[in-house]
Design brief:
The protein is α/β, with parallel strands linked by helices. It contains 15 helices and 9 strands.
Length: 365
C-alpha cells in the first residue's frame, strides 16, 4: 500500500464541509484526547480561527508534555545547485540561467568548519536534482567529511531508491528531508514542467523508501503557496500520520515552508497569511503530539520567535541558501531567507523565552 491509496480514498468537498461545520464540533475537536483526521480538518478550517487562542494554549501544553522546553538547532549546507528539473517556483530550476556551482571536497570542508565554529552539531546538506553532477561517490565523500564536524547528518537531495539510501545510511546519514511540494496532483503536474521530479508518485513514496532504508528521522512537508493551503495541510498531516503508524522506529517530523522570493520571480496564486499559518502549526501539534515540527529561516525573526512554545521543536540558525554560502558570497540562492540572525543571536532569544537551545541530541557510533 502507498500513501497514494490513502489520498485517493478521500473525496472531500472542502468548501461544503466547512459550511456544515459548527463551532461546537471545533471546540470538541480541540480537547478530544485522540483526534481523527476529521478533527484535524476541523482545526484547519477558517472557522477554527475563532479558537486560535485556545488551540495555541493546548498546543503549548502538549509540546511541553512530549518535548519539554527545548528547541533543536541545525544548519543547512548547499553543496550544489545544478538541477535537471524545470520547477517554475524554484531558484535552482533548470529554467533559470544562473551561474551554477558545485563545491569541491575541500570547499565542503571549509564550509563545514565555519558552521562547526558556531557550535551547531546537526547539519542538513542539500543539492539540486542532478544525479550525474552529484553522484553517489561524491555524496559519500561529503558524508565522510561532515562526520568529522557534526554528530547528525541529514540530506535534502534528489529522491533515490532504497538501496542507494541504505548506502548513505551506512555511511552515516541519519535524516532525510523530502517535500512533496503539493499533494494536489493536477497542480503538481502543471508546475513541474520537466525532469524526474515530474513523477508525482515516485516523489510521494520517497519518505517510505527512506524509512525502509533505515534513516532515523524523516521530515516531510508541502510548500505553501503552490496550491490550496487547506488541502496541502490536511494531506501532509495525514501523510505524517501514515508514516508514523507504519514505521514506528522512525522519527517523523514536518515542515511548514511558505514560498519566498527566488530567481525566476514566481508569483504564487495562493496565500497563507500569518494567522492561519500559526493555526496550521497548532492544529498539527494537536493532531500528532509526537511529531517534530521544523521552522526554517524562510520565516522572519518575529514570527520564529513567537512560534517558540507553540509546537515547533526544531529551527535552522545562521542559514545560507546559496552554494557554499558560509565561505563565499554573491552566489544565487534557492530562495531568500527572512531571518538572517546568527546562531548566537537565535540561541540568546531561545534562552530568553525560557527554552533550552539543543545543539546535539544524537551521536552515531
Amino acid at each position: 500500500m502507498s500513501f497514494l491509496n490513502v489520498i485517493e480514498s478521500y473525496n472531500i468537498d472542502f468548501e461544503k464541509y466547512e459550511e456544515k461545520l459548527s463551532f461546537d464540533e471545533i471546540k470538541k475537536s480541540i480537547y478530544k484526547e485522540k483526534k481523527s483526521e476529521f478533527d484535524y480538518l476541523n482545526l484547519l478550517s477558517y472557522k477554527a480561527g475563532n479558537f486560535l487562542e485556545e488551540m495555541a494554549k493546548e498546543a503549548q501544553k502538549i509540546t511541553f508534555q512530549y518535548f519539554g522546553k527545548t528547541i533543536q538547532l541545525y544548519a543547512p549546507l548547499y553543496i550544489s545547485d545544478y538541477c535537471t528539473n524545470s520547477c517554475i517556483y524554484c531558484g535552482f530550476s533548470a529554467l533559470n540561467k544562473i551561474k551554477r556551482q558545485k563545491l569541491t571536497l575541500k570547499e565542503i570542508e571549509e564550509n563545514a568548519k565555519e558552521i562547526a565554529k558556531t557550535g551547531i552539531k546537526h547539519i542538513l546538506f542539500l543539492t539540486g536534482e542532478a544525479p550525474e553532477i552529484t553522484p553517489m561517490e561524491y555524496l559519500l565523500d561529503t558524508v565522510k567529511i561532515l562526520k568529522k564536524y557534526f554528530s547528525s547528518i541529514s540530506i535534502e537531495i534528489f529522491p533515490m531508491n532504497i538501496e542507494d539510501y541504505k548506502k548513505l545510511a551506512e555511511a552515516g546519514v541519519d535524516g532525510l528531508t523530502i517535500y512533496q511540494e503539493t499533494y494536489d496532483r493536477k497542480i503538481y503536474d502543471s508546475i513541474h514542467l520537466a525532469g524526474k521530479k515530474k513523477d508525482y508518485v515516485f516523489r510521494l513514496d520517497t519518505p517510505e523508501r527512506g524509512a525502509i532504508a533505515g534513516f532515523r528521522r524523516v521530515n516531510i512537508g508541502a510548500l505553501y503557496g503552490l496550491a490550496d493551503p487547506l488541502k496541502d495541510a490536511f494531506f501532509s498531516g495525514l501523510h505524517a500520520r501514515y508514516l508514523q503508524d507504519k514505521y514506528i522506529d522512525t522519527e517523523i517530523s514536518i515542515s511548514f515552508p511558505r514560498i519566498n522570493p527566488a530567481e525566476g520571480n514566481f508569483q504564487p496564486k495562493y496565500h497563507l497569511d500569518d494567522k492561519r499559518f500559526v493555526q496550521f502549526i497548532c492544529a498539527f501539534r494537536l493532531f500528532l503530539p509526537r511529531c517534530g515540527i521544523t521552522i526554517s529561516t524562510r520565516e522572519n525573526a518575529r514570527m520564529r520567535d513567537n512560534l517558540i512554545g507553540l509546537g515547533i521543536t526544531r529551527m535552522s540558525a545562521g542559514s545560507k541558501t546559496s552554494v557554499g554560502g558560509y565561505k563565499y558570497d554573491n552566489l544565487p540562492s534557492q530562495f531568500e531567507i527572512s531571518d538572517s540572525r546568527s546562531v548566537f543571536e537565535i540561541e540568546k532569544v531561545i534562552w530568553q523565552k525560557g527554552y533550552e537551545p539543543v545543539f546535539k541530541d544524537w551521536h552515531q557510533f
